[in-house]
Amino acid sequence: MCALVAAVSAVMPVSAVEKDGMVYGTMKIPYAEFYAGEGTSEVDAVTSATDAKWKKEALVGGTYNNGDHQILGVIYNVAISSSDLAALGENNYGFVESDSVPAAYKEVSVKDGKVSFSAVKGSAEKISGASVSFATSSKYGDYQASFKDLPSFGTVYGIVIHTKEGGEYAMRHLENIWRGSEVAWSVGVTKTEKHGNTLSYKNYEDMMGQTIDSFTFITENGSYTMDADLYVPYKFTNETKVEGAASGSGKTSVSLSGYPSDYKKTYSVEGLDAAVSGSTITYKNAVPGSYTLTVSDAKGKYADVTATFVLSTDETPVSYKDGKLAAVSSASDAANFIKNIATVNVNGTDYAASGKRAVKIVAEDGSIDTSAKSGETAIFTGNDTVTVTATGYNNPVTFTIGAGSSSAEEVKPSEDTKPTGNQPEATASNVVSADKPTGTSGAYTVKKGDSLWSIAKEKLGDGARYNEIAELNGIKTPSKIQPGLVLILPA
Asked: 103 has which bridge partners?
């Protein structure tokens, strides 16, 4: 007896809370052992390829790691008898005593040297007033459930998905649980997520074809269960591809392979008047932009499959004028171009127009925000060259603008080079001679509707060489060339 008392006091400080023969504290519990008490299948530790997320408290609060990108399990409240704690000795899962009895905990038992953890003891409440949306595609796996209006139950230590068929599936931080309000998982169709992390999917493969009837959130205050009714459709590896084509009315080809024999295909393309027959999509009156073909199973057994494609045009419906992108004619669709802007390049640096790190440079009305910043850094510095690229439009719009100015800098020709008679005035710093200088390929007279990009594409075979034409001819405002201007073309 004296030896036992000595062993206990060596592990448990006298300040530890003890009630009914149980000692309370926290332990570092590996995921597999933590979830075993909840009746789920065994799960592994989580390895992260990213440098910071595996240790970021806001994302993985309540977990512990190996110091090198691997999350091993959770630090959770426990209740253990003094004798069992003594029996563990130094192998006590990093036990740290508590100064009060926790609201929720797992009971720890030791038998024949084997440690086991019970299901969570404490309050078990039903969640009401919350909602869940379910997607069969995700950047983080094959399925994703996203929750709204969850109660404020503090740190989420784990989530268990239950199915009507009796399945119990454990979710882990980072790979599956995102900030306690989203869970995603793989069944093996998607094997890596967006950051390059390899996904564990073996324990989730048999979830396909089952129906999720509830989610249980394990928190510091107990467990909270939310009812659901979500069928998990079968997914499969496939190749679904649609070729890009011209906008307007026309046809494009679609190829489908890898579909199960009992997949009854139906087709739809949102926002497009289209019909699919065999391997051909026929469409009418399509504006330039990105479209998504959705292939669905009429019987509902399988998940939808999608493929994105672009219908494009060589026409550019906007030009830069008075501080904004404006329609070049009454018939042009400037709004569609602006809606489809993908990137804005300022002085050689691309800025995404949409997505997580988007920078809003072009407003919905086409106005250019010359006060825009990337983080805390100003984008516009003075005399800036801007190139706007839009999805579905093959030719970008390029112009020069001065920061803080409402219109592009327009450089007037000097007195001795101004055109005379009825010749149109040229917006350039000089009007060059039509003679062929050394190292050039000849002269070209600008026609109505020309742009430096279109001239470079037609005459030099590469639209990106418009800057060479501008530099050779001393043109400081590439978007302002006028019909009648004579240009010398580079070799």
From this structure: none
- The string of pLDDT tens digits covering residues 269-305 is 999 999 999 899 999 999 999 999 999 999 999 999 9
- Beta bridge partner(s), residue 70: 47
φ, ψ of residue 51 to 5 degrees: the values are -80, -30
- Identity of residue 460: L
Tokens of 360: 């809003």
The alpha carbon of residue 304 and the mean position of all alpha carbons in its chain are separated, in whole angstroms, by 20
> How many residues can be counted in the chain?
491
How far is the C-alpha of 437 from the C-alpha of 435, rounded, in Å?
6
Distances (CA, A) of 320 to 323, 327, 362, 393: 7, 9, 11, 16
The CA-atom distances, in angstroms, between 185 and each of 53, 157, 164, 327, 434 are 18, 17, 18, 46, 66
Q: For tokens 């009895």, what's the residue?
A: 101
Over residues 449-466, the pLDDT tens digits come to 678 878 887 888 877 687
Q: 387: part of which helix (H) or strand (E)?
A: strand 383-390
**CA gap 149, 165 in Å, rounded:** 27
* Residue linked to tokens 């440098």: 51
Contact 488, 437 (CB under 8 A): yes
CA dihedral 256, 258, 261, 267 (to 10 degrees): -30
CA–chain centroid gap for 478, Å, is: 35
Residue type, 292: T
CA distance 345 to 362: 11
Indicate the burial class of 277 (C-beta count within 10 angstroms; 0-12, 13-18, 19 or more): exposed
The arithmetic mean of pLDDT across residues 200-211, rounded, is: 96
For residues 171 and 134, give the distance between their C-alpha atoms in angstroms, rounded to a whole number: 16
Does residue 484 carry a pLDDT above 90?
Answer: no
* Residue of 490, 491, 485 whose CA lies nearest to 433: 485
Distance from C-alpha of 411 to C-alpha of 416, rounded to nearest angstrom: 15
Say which amino acid occupies 480. K
229 contacts 211 by C-beta, under 8 angstroms:
yes
**Listed residue (64, 42, 40, 44) closest to 54, CA to CA:** 64
Amino acid at 232: V
For the record, the structure tokens of 266 come out as: 């139906």
469, 475 contact by CB (below 8 A): yes
Residue 390, CB-side half-sphere exposure with 13 Å CA sphere: 29
User: 143-164 burial by CB neighbour count: b if 16+ within 10 A, else e?
Assistant: bbbebeebeebebbbbbbbbbe
Which tokens go with 427?
A: 């917006």
